[in-house]
Write a structure and sequence with these properties.
83 residues, alpha+beta, 60s Ribosomal Protein L30, Chain: A, globular
Length: 83
């Protein structure tokens, strides 16, 4: 399950802005996108990931994605950052 990979990741970047920065810097190895997030927020991220060759994994809900990151609120985008 993809949520387990989020939990096992060493360093995470939570949120669209921070995740975008990590992808642009070439530091993100994988990006998780919540299916129920606003497409206006996530489409740009998905396109950037395709351009940069970063794997995109879709998860069901923002709530579950946030929870697997250890936060109480939902997360639209989470990037796994290479150490």
């Amino acid at each position: 399950m993809s949520y387990e990979r989020v939990k096992q990741a060493g360093k995470l970047c939570i949120g669209t802005k921070q995740s975008t920065k990590m992808v642009e810097l070439g530091k993100a190895s994988e990006v998780f996108v919540a299916k129920d997030a606003d497409p206006r927020m996530t489409n740009k991220m998905v396109n950037l990931c395709k351009k940069m060759g970063v794997k995109v994994t879709y998860v069901d809900t923002m709530k579950l994605l946030g929870k697997s990151c250890g936060i109480e609120v939902g997360a639209a985008v989470v990037a796994v950052v290479n150490e």
